Amino acid sequence: MQIVDLQLPRHQLSAQMAAMRIWLDEHRLEPTSFVCNDAREEVRVLVTFSLAGEARAFADRFAGRVHAAPSAVASGLEPADLVG
Hints:
CATH topology: Alpha-Beta Plaits
Number of domains: 1
Strand content: 25-35%
Number of helices: 4
Oligomer: single chain
């Protein structure tokens, strides 16, 4: 499992989420989970993919960071548990 971590300015969230959905549809990709956590100025978005290549392509397109999550899977944590 690969998690893409994005930090989005709050005022861009709606436009960025729409762009993500379009991009995912165009590439026929379906993340396994999608979690948002509000902060003061930014929103942290964690998008989980089963395949590393899909996660890397998404991260490259949306300026995210990819994290492998084998320890989270093994420990039974959900992506929401990784949001600080």
